[in-house]
Amino acid sequence: MFLDRREFLLRGFGFLNRSRGMTTQDQLFTLRWWASKKVAEPETREAMLAILDSLLGEQAPPKPLVPLYPGPEFPVVGRPILADGIDAYVRSADPRWARGITIHHTAAPSLAQRPNGFLETHMHNLRSYYRGLGWSAGPHFFVDEDQAWAFSPIAKPGIHAKSFNRTHLGIEMLGDYDREDPWSGRGLQVLTMTASIVAELLRSLNLDLSTVNFHRDDPKSDKTCPGRRIDKSKFLQLVQA
Ligand SMILES: [Zn+2]
Fold first, then answer.
1. What's the gap in Å between 164 CA and the centre of ligand 1?
2. Which of 44, 52, 159, 176 could form a disulfide with 32 if both were Cys (CB 3.0 to 4.6 A apart)?
């Protein structure tokens, strides 16, 4: 997913508009991350990085995530996080119970129902939804095309797949991949973002690729999750890339 200068600015403004819960410094770090990874043309990339570095000044690392809902009842972090923030997040929570990662799609909402990805308010709504089911936790991350949203704290098992709850982190990808296309446009952006988050989690937790499974691998589930249109080996190739 490579951006030219115009696309970078458009997506950057869109991101700033949607990330008012983040500090200015975290927003600048996010934009810097995009510029370093996604701006294809080297001269443009260097120019963007120089501007962002001058705005960031002395680069202090982003602060630890402050939970939106600290708990004790249904705690939710509710904060955006990028692949390069995963290791610090894992180290802050020490989720030694996690021996793998289970991938889901949200199905509802679909990509079409969230044209700008997730907002902080959606984390609030999702918390209400899961609490309404009588659950004490949900999945650990929701991923859209721009970032992962830390949801249930990773220090403890979540609730997302009967057979895997006790051993696997749960990651929900925005989209309905029974119907929507995971291999082009926003679908591919969400999958690529998820793959980079999964790769960082594996590295940080010292797990290998074989510990990544799909919700539909659960013998106690008859779901197609994360969607019929996602081939597992193809997804795992993205994680390895
Ligand atoms: Zn699922």
1. 11
2. 52
Q: Coil, strand or helix: which one is 89?
A: helix
pLDDT at 67 over 60: yes
Task: Report d(CA 153, CA 63) in Å as an integer.
Answer: 16
Alpha-carbon span 169 to 97, nearest angstrom: 9
* Residue 153 to residue 72: CA distance in whole angstroms: 11
CA of 168 from ligand 1 middle (Å) equals: 12
CA 232–ligand 1 middle distance (angstroms):
14
pTM comes to: 0.78
Q: How far, in Å, from the CA of 107 to the mean position of ligand 1?
A: 9
3-state secondary structure 137-154: CCCCEEECCCCEEECCCC
Give the model confidence (pLDDT) of 104-126 as tens digits: 999 999 999 999 899 888 999 99
Residue owning tokens 């989690």? 201
The alpha carbon of 5 and the centre of ligand 1 are apart by a number of angstroms equal to 37
Measured in Å, residue 174 CA sits from the centre of ligand 1 at 11
Mean residue pLDDT of the chain comes to 90
Find out whether 193 and 145 touch, Cβ atoms under 8 Å: yes
Q: Is the pLDDT of residue 63 over 70?
A: no
CB neighbours of 226 closer than 8 A, spacing ≥ 6?
Answer: 103, 104, 105, 173, 177, 214, 215, 216
